[in-house]
Structure formats: C-alpha cells, structure tokens
Design a protein that fits this description.
This protein is of the alpha+beta class. The chain has 5 helices and 4 strands.
C-alpha cells in the first residue's frame, strides 16, 4: 500500500519543484536586464536623452510594431510642424533630466520570452520616486520593449501612440511634468 503512494507523491514533488524553479530561471536571463541597463546608462551620467527618433534607432530598443508607431509619430509631427504625441522622454516620464541613481529590476513573465522590467528613481529636487514599468519581449533580435507604463498615467506608450487625435496633450500637467533641475 505504501509503494502505491510513494510514486504519485514523488511525481507531484518533482512537478512542484520544476514549477517553482522555472520562473526563477526565466528571471535570470541577463538579456532583459542588459536592455534596460543600455537604455538607462546615459541617464546615470548625462542629461542627454536616448535617441530613438527613427524607426531604425527605435528598433534597437522596441519591438517592430512599437518602433513603427514611434516613426509614424515623428513623421506626422514633422509634416504638421508640431510636437508629436510622444512629447516627453518615455524612459524618465518627463522632459528634462538630471543624472541620478536608477534602480532596475527584471521579473519573469508568464513565459520564457516575456518579462517585466521596472526603473525606479527620484529626480533631484523631488520627494516622490518615479517608477516606469516595461513589458519586455524576447525577439530574434534579443530583448525588446513591447510597452511602457507610468504611475499616475492611464495610457501606456502604445495607447498614447495609437491615439487618433492630439487629445493626448490634454493630460494633466502633473502626470508628465517638466523637470528642470
């Protein structure tokens, strides 16, 4: 009778062990973290923004669909001679920057090719930290950003870039405040 219970119990324990270890192994993929480190490396040393104003440049950081949305926004803004929908740096959730310490984290997603990244920092002169959350996807070209979410903002990067009109500029000023240090 005991032999009959040992095998199912052993199988269940092995399955549980695999389930517990699988997310940890996905979280350890260094490529997702390396992507975010590359994005934020200039922010820790300089006040210069990352250049992703063309589809080719955006493709270094974003999945192809988002790179196309960014390129479309840049082209439309140039054609209309006005500011595009993306009128702030999505990585800092603002327009102006001063170097500061940035804490990066990457957590496993629902599958091995998905992860969630976060960047947390406090801009000098401000009391509250800013958190930027990234939906990361592993593509043939490596890890890329599929979307960006900001605290206190309902729209994500993709939602903002997909807006049909320029009503996205009617958002509250406190959400993407101008950061002058």
């Amino acid at each position: 009778m005991i032999k009959g219970r040992v095998f199912p119990t052993a199988v269940m324990l092995v399955g549980l062990l695999i389930a517990l270890l699988a997310p940890a192994s996905r979280a350890q993929d260094p490529g997702a973290r390396a992507l975010l480190q590359g994005v934020y490396a200039p922010c820790g040393k300089s006040d210069k923004a990352l250049d992703f104003a063309s589809e080719a440049k955006a493709a270094r950081y974003f999945v192809p669909a988002v790179a196309k949305l960014i390129a479309r926004d840049v082209a439309e803004a140039k054609r209309r001679q006005e500011v595009g929908r993306l009128d702030f740096d999505p990585f800092i959730a603002g327009q102006d920057w001063s170097p500061t310490k940035i804490e990066l984290r990457v957590a496993a997603g629902v599958s091995a090719d998905r992860a969630t990244g976060t960047a947390r920092f406090t801009v000098p002169g401000e009391k509250q930290p800013t958190t930027v959350t990234f939906d990361l996807v592993k593509t043939r070209a490596g890890w890329r950003i599929a979307d960006i979410h900001w605290a206190d903002q309902a729209d994500s990067l993709v939602a903002l870039l997909n807006k049909k009109n320029r009503a996205c500029h009617d958002r509250p000023a406190a959400v993407f405040r101008r950061r002058r240090i």
